[in-house]
Amino acid sequence: MSSLHLYTQNIPLTQKAKFWTNYVSALKGNQDLRASSPPPHTTSHPSVLERLPDEYPDLKQQISKLESQLFDRPKRKSHQPLTPVIAEANDRIHSLGYSYYPVHTEIYGTY
Hints:
It is a single chain. The protein has five helices and no strands. The chain is 45% helix and 0% strand. It is mainly alpha-helical and 111 residues long.
């Protein structure tokens, strides 16, 4: 490796970059050095309705309603908080001079 350094020591920067690019490409060969991207994640939920006999139409209807509630619910919008905000607590936390003392520091200590 030191002989390669000596070889590129006195050549201009662009030639040096081209040399090292070609050198690394020659070492690499035809294989790509990047990891392949993972396959897209698809979630499949088999329906219970497929297993129920046709003799139970009322049960099928009820289960269909439950499945639609589980799987067809709209996604949460990013601007909506995960939990509802209590106005009084939010005002108290953002008021001047408020100090927050979490309970978990009494249990686990501080860092």
